[in-house]
């Protein structure tokens, strides 16, 4: 695809194959659009990737999510719903999902000196830079301003948690058996701020939109809460919150019958792989009864998304059940023009709804 300067891998099996060969399909892409972030684990291969991941990951594991963060996540969700419950109308992306996941992310990262609005703004600016294939200078400027703000916030918190560890990602990194230096900690927090807002926010929006268009499915899920987990996985497969990510070949290699020379840039188009009809029957349909096959929405191999368990809990265990449980008569606002946008990152820009307002 000359317009984006890379070959696209679009089939499920080819994407999985590439992810199993990081020594060939390298994350260390020359001239990566993550240039405003600096060296980070998302664009590193092992052993550097393994070192950084081992330091950052512990606070995001399932047990830690349940024991350390779940209670605060739930309180924040209720507080946000308290603000809008009496209104009878809202944009669930702007008024609920984005501030929820941003506040949760600030907590998990240990950025107690940043508010939900800061986290959301920084994420939006940096991810626009990460998908700035048209090289818009204004987009780069906003991304650079966001990264500088994050660097200042992380520097302040790194000093505090070095003295008093708090179980957060920043604390985990600076107090790791192989401590991560400040610049590396700052760079990796930048990456986490990006994905940690976009992915759960967009999965929430897509899933809520899908259910509101399918009242018979919604009724089933409300009657069988265990189905919320299936809704999450099917939503992430159906409209992947990250549509593609880049790799670069370290050597000549044949894939899908095409020999690509060393240095070739490729894109693993997981949004397409997740709709591969040879893997997912009726792939374009939203089907919570779909037989289980691993989807690609959180990547694969060494770079499987570190925040997957955080996203699963805050969306499927809390956000959806609370929203549909508390906002009675919830329905889409027929007069609104909600739409999906994005290719690298994809989700609804808004989700306007109405309900029977509580007193």
What descriptive keywords fit this protein?
359 residues, alpha+beta, Cytochrome p450, 4-stranded mixed sheet, 3-stranded antiparallel sheet
Helices, strands, pairings?
Layout: E1 7-9, H1 12-19, E2 25-26, H2 48-56, H3 62-84, E3 89-91, H4 92-109, H5 116-130, H6 137-163, H7 169-174, H8 182-212, H9 215-223, H10 228-238, E4 245-249, E5 253-255, E6 258-260, E7 265-268, H11 270-273, H12 308-326, E8 331-332, E9 340-341, E10 347-348, E11 352-354
Parallel strand pairs: 1-7
Antiparallel strand pairs: 2-4, 3-11, 4-7, 5-6, 8-11, 9-10
Question: How is this structure best described in words?
Answer:
The protein is an alpha+beta fold and 359 residues long. It has a single domain, classed as Cytochrome P450 (Cytochrome p450, Orthogonal Bundle). Helices cover 50% and strands 9% of the residues. It has twelve helices and eleven strands. It has helices at 12-19, 48-56, 62-84, 92-109, 116-130, 137-163, 169-174, 182-212, 215-223, 228-238, 270-273, 308-326, and strands at residues 7-9, 25-26, 89-91, 245-249, 253-255, 258-260, 265-268, 331-332, 340-341, 347-348, 352-354. The chain has a four-stranded mixed beta sheet with strand order 1-7-4-2, covered by helices on one side. A hairpin with a 5-residue loop joins strand 9 (340-341) and strand 10 (347-348). It is globular, with a radius of gyration of 20 Å. It starts with 6 loop residues before the first strand and ends in a 5-residue tail after the last strand. The mean pLDDT is 92.
From the alpha carbons, calculate the radius of gyration and give it in angstroms: 20 Å
Low-confidence stretches: none
Rounded average pLDDT: 92
CATH class: Mainly Alpha
Q: Treating each run of at least 4 consecutive H or I residues as one helix, how many helices? A: 12
Total count of domains: 1
CATH names the topology as Cytochrome p450
The major sheet is characterized as: 4 strands, mixed
End-to-end Cα distance, whole Å, is: 55 Å
CATH superfamily: Cytochrome P450
**What percentage of residues falls in helices of 4 or more residues?**
40-55%
Structural class per helix/strand content? Answer: alpha+beta
- Strand and helix order: EHEHHEHHHHHHHEEEEHHEEEE
Proper CATH architecture: Orthogonal Bundle
Please report the total strand number as a whole number. 11
Biggest sheet: strand arrangement:
1-7-4-2
Shape: globular
Strand content: 5-15%
């Amino acid at each position: 695809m000359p317009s984006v300067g890379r070959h696209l891998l679009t089939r499920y099996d080819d994407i999985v194959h590439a992810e199993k060969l990081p020594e060939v399909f390298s994350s260390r892409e020359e001239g990566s659009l993550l240039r405003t972030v600096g060296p980070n684990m998302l664009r590193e291969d092992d052993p550097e990737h393994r070192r950084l991941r081992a330091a950052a990951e512990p606070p995001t594991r399932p047990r830690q999510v349940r024991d350390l963060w779940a209670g605060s996540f739930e309180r924040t969700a209720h507080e946000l719903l308290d603000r809008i419950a009496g209104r009878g109308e809202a944009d669930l992306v702007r008024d609920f999902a984005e501030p929820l996941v941003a506040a949760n992310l600030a907590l998990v990262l240990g950025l107690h000196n940043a508010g939900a609005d800061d986290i959301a703004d920084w994420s939006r600016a940096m991810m626009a830079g990460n998908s700035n294939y048209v090289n818009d200078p204004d987009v780069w400027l906003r991304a650079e301003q966001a990264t500088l703000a994050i660097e200042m916030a992380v520097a302040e918190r790194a000093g505090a948690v070095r003295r008093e560890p708090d179980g957060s990602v920043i604390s985990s990194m600076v107090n790791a058996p192989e401590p991560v230096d400040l610049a590396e900690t700052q760079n990796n927090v930048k990456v986490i701020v990006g994905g940690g807002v976009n992915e759960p926010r967009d999965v929430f929006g897509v899933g809520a939109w899908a259910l509101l268009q399918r009242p018979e499915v919604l009724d089933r899920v409300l009657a069988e809460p265990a189905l919320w987990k299936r809704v999450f996985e099917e939503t992430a497969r159906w409209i992947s919150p990250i549509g593609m990510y880049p790799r670069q070949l370290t050597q000549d290699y044949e894939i899908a019958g095409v020999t690509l020379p060393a240095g070739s840039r490729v894109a693993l188009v997981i949004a397409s792989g997740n709709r591969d009809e040879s893997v997912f029957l009726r792939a374009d349909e939203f089907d919570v009864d779909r037989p289980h096959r691993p989807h690609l929405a959180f990547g694969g191999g060494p770079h499987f998304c570190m925040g997957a368990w955080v996203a699963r809990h805050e969306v499927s265990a809390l956000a959806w059940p609370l929203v549909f449980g508390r906002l009675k008569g919830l329905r889409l606002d027929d007069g609104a023009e909600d739409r999906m946008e994005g290719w690298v990152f994809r989700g609804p820009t808004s989700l306007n709804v109405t309900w029977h307002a509580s007193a």
